[in-house]
Amino acid sequence: MTVTSEQANPIAQVLREHPQDLLEQWIQVQMDAPWVRLDLIGEAEIRAQSAELIELLGAACQSGNVSDIQADEWGRVRDFLRELSRSRATLGFSPTETAQFVLSFKMPLINMLRQASPSLDMQVWQTMWQASVLVDDLALYLLDVYMTSREQVIKRQQMELMELSTPVVQVWEGILVLPIIGTLDTARTQVVMENLLQAIVETASDIAIIDITGVPMVDTSVAQHLIKTVTAARLMGARCIVSGIRPQIAQTMVNLGVTFADITTRASLADALAYAFAQLNMRVTRNESS
Q: Which of 3.40.640.10, 1.10.760.10, 2.30.30.230, 3.30.750.24 would CATH assign to domain 169-279?
């Protein structure tokens, strides 16, 4: 049942007249609940968030609309829940623990409605049910936004980790080194290529060394990703060397029939650097002390 703004609304009245009582009961419910995470958030912050939501709910319900939380007057409530979900996702709350914050408000709200309406006629029960559905809708919305926020956090962290794990270092004028640690997949290969090509342009380097010492296994898929990276670098005018091919990796590649064709390879990064210096007609000599 939709209550219009012209009609007296018990939910709006309770939120307006008993915010402190609601807050104290709600805090008690949360503190006594087995799902409370005081290791992630303190009681003072829980109290502040609870008080803010009660205030926002009171303002939204004054319109008389207590059933459609997608309406304009519920905009600030949705914004609050969206920010709350982002915050709790970042802190490490589970989706259930996040939704319980709103669901736990149902008991205090219904208790206050019963106290405000001692004669429990049909109208009161309908109002209580309306309040129950409202809280459920808020919790479901919070859970939905939480999952979206969590996915965004995970994707951002994955991108940051990929960028941090694929640094391009200019070890000498004209020589770049790209050390790869971990497994290469399609998404990471894209980051590797972008970082390498950007570095080639910025430094005008002639040689790029791709060191796979930290790659645990080279199979057909990894080899194809490496070949794509080398091909892209060649199109930019740079010569590529793949280093860090350990005996175990060499045996695996032979057994799988994987080859790097005309790509220059070296067993270690030191060998690759020596080869790069030779290609640039440079030589490293020891400075003998007198």
A: 3.30.750.24
